[in-house]
Specification:
single chain, alpha+beta, Heat Shock Protein 90, 2 domains, seven-stranded antiparallel sheet, five-stranded mixed sheet, 14 helices, 18 strands, 47% helix, binds adenosine-5'-diphosphate
Length: 599
């Protein structure tokens, strides 16, 4: 049995637990994949808006060049150098200030005394534009990024004074790494704890920046305020550089139009926002949405032209992402738990059934040996006494009668046993037939007891009868009912030792329903406590042959109960006061039953 349980645990239960564990693990991986897919999708949205923003800036840059060339249609570059600020602002509203500077360091426009903005521009930028000072800039050239740090080393540019004006962004190392304005929750390949900006400032003079290029964008921070400039050199006069300080509010207006979510399905899921270099929201898709803007789900930097500006994506309902994963996890977890439980319960039931089958198989083996023994004992007596009589060696009449009585009793015992076995197999196969008829149970009991009396008394038993005087009518099969009484009497005889007293009672009772009760009482071994019900199970023996030396098949009471139940009654066992046992056969009185019928 232990072996079966062990096999079950090793072959079914443990593998199913392992499978369940693997399923939970793959579920977790699945959840990570889902989250990753989501973050990739949102990152793609941020990247595409950032790209459009960079394209728009490039388009404005080209537009500026066209504006400058348009001015040269009627004039030489040098002719309009002084009035460039006014002319440009008139035709191109995106310019805040238009400036002109020659490569040899002469500023033509704007006029220092024209207007406050022009004056401020000149004060802030003159030294830089005349290449008398190197400043910290974010530089973007259409021909590609120049590595300004290399330039610095080569030209030995001294930049200590220039950085005084520069941005307040935290430099973290010598190689000019800057922390980003935001801390996205999902960062691709995050190698370090902190998130660094991909744009890095470098210090250079204006002439170094221009190099051989004809146009470009440069961004610098002055008093923590971004100054974005476009510049252009016409092939007609490459010595003069025309430039524009961009009006940021107008630019932001243009950029704001790009901040949108194209996909209808994503519209309710995310909010896309344009953050300026101070981390403030310049434009967003969901106006009512509020959150910690420094902690987007994903974000992309716009680029060198707008350093530290970010396109950030926020989850409108952050719980939703984890919620659906949680629901999936919970459902699958529940399913796995139910499956494991089902396997456990199923296994338990199988083990229990197996145990029952094993017990039954053992009982059947015992039954065969018990029955063989029970057949052999009477047969031996019958043979021995009949041989003695046949040989004519016993001449004493009294002895002859006694031997014949023994032979009759043993034959009756054999018949009883064979009847029991045959009836049991008939009942098991569902072939047992009863012939129901109204009969007097007192008559049946009296007849049976009187048949059995000589045998009992011959074996030293005192048999008492207390039977009702009037007939007790039941609807039943006389022979089957007699078999119950015989079995009970036979047990009373078998399980009695010193006090050989048997009492049989038959009476009419009215509670709870009118019924007839036949009791067989003895002063024998008694039924062990706790076995009062078990003794009615097939093959079960409370006193086995080995320990008690009493032969039996374990079928007598099983049959008695089956027959009684087929009659709508029952047989029960009760302990008897003063020692011994009491078996009661209860049957419904005849008037309450149908008058005939066959089963
Ligand atoms: P068996 O052939 O073993 O007597 P039964 O089905 O008639 O089979 O009885 C089942 C068991 O019930 C017996 O083995 C015995 O242990 C117990 N039993 C039956 N009748 C009595 C009794 N009168 N006194 C004590 N034990 C009894």
């Amino acid at each position: 049995m232990k072996k079966v349980a062990l096999v079950f645990v090793l072959a079914v239960f443990v593998p199913s637990l392992v499978l369940a564990w693997l399923a939970v693990r793959s579920l977790r991986d699945q959840q990570l994949v889902l989250e990753r897919q989501r973050s990739l999708l949102y990152q793609a949205v941020a990247d595409s808006v950032a790209k459009e923003a960079a394209n728009l800036l490039a388009e404005h840059q080209r537009e500026f060049a066209r504006q400058v060339e348009a001015l040269f249609a009627d004039h030489k570059p040098i002719d309009i150098a002084g009035s460039f600020d006014g002319r440009l602002r008139k035709d191109w509203p995106l310019a805040d200030v238009g400036f002109t500077v020659s490569l040899d360091g002469q500023v033509y426009s704007p006029n220092l005394f024209d207007r406050p903005e022009a004056r401020r521009f000149r004060l802030d930028n003159d030294k830089f534009l005349c290449s008398r000072e190197s400043v910290e800039v974010y530089w973007n050239s259409p021909k590609g990024t120049i590595n300004l740090s290399q330039l610095d080393e080569k030209d030995g540019v001294q930049s200590a004074n220039a950085s005084a004006n520069s941005s307040t962004y935290v430099k973290t190392s010598k190689d000019n790494k800057l922390l980003r304005n935001v801390e996205p929750q999902q960062v691709q390949q995050r190698m370090e704890q902190q998130v660094y900006s991909k744009v890095a400032p470098s210090e250079a003079e204006f002439r170094q920046l221009i190099g051989d290029s004809t146009e470009g964008t440069l961004a610098r921070f002055l008093q923590n305020k971004l100054n974005l400039m476009f510049w252009y050199r016409s092939p007609r006069d490459p010595q003069i550089v025309f430039g524009a300080l961009i009006a940021l509010p107008k630019l932001v207006e243009d950029l704001g139009r790009l901040v949108k979510v194209d996909s209808e399905s994503l519209h309710n899921e995310i909010c896309v926002a344009l953050l300026d270099d101070t981390g403030r929201v310049a434009a967003r898709t969901t106006p009512a949405f509020q959150t910690n803007w420094k902690r987007p789900f994903v974000a992309t930097e716009v680029g060198e032209a707008l350093p530290h500006w970010e396109i950030a994506v926020y989850l409108i309902d952050p719980a939703r992402l984890s919620q659906s994963a949680q629901t999936l996890k919970f459902t699958l977890g529940l399913l796995i738990a139910v499956l494991v439980l089902a396997i456990g319960v199923g296994g338990g039931l199988i083990v229990m059934d197996l145990k029952r089958q094993l017990i039954l198989a053992r009982q059947k083996t015992d039954f065969v040996s018990n029955v063989s023994h029970e057949l052999k004992t009477p047969l031996t007596s019958i043979r021995m006494f009949s041989e003695l009589l046949a040989e004519g060696r016993v001449l004493d009449k009294e002895k002859q009668r006694s031997y014949l009585n023994i032979i009759t009793a043993e034959t009756a015992r054999l018949t009883r046993l064979i009847n029991n076995v045959l009836d049991f197999s008939r009942i098991e196969r569902g072939e047992k037939k009863y012939t129901f008829a109204k009969c007097d149970l007192v008559g049946v009991v009296r007849e049976t007891v009187e048949t059995y009396r000589p045998h009992l008394e011959a074996n030293g038993f005192k048999l008492e009868c207390d039977l009702a005087d009037s007939p007790l009518l039941v609807n039943g099969d006389r022979d089957a009912l007699a078999q119950i009484v015989v079995n009970l009497l036979s047990n009373a005889e078998k399980y009695s030792t010193d006090r050989k007293e048997v009492r049989v009672e038959a009476r009419q009772l009215s509670q709870p329903l009118p019924h007839v009760e036949v009791s067989v009482l003895d002063r024998g071994l008694g039924v062990p406590q706790g076995c009062e019900e078990k003794i009615f199970e097939q093959f079960y023996r409370a006193h086995d042959s080995l320990s008690s030396g009493i032969q039996g098949s374990g079928l007598g009471l099983t049959l008695a109960r089956q027959i009684a139940r087929a009659h709508g009654g029952d047989v029960v066992c009760e302990p008897r006061e003063g020692g011994g046992s009491c078996f009661r056969l209860r049957l419904p009185s005849a008037p309450t039953l149908a008058t005939n019928g066959h089963e």
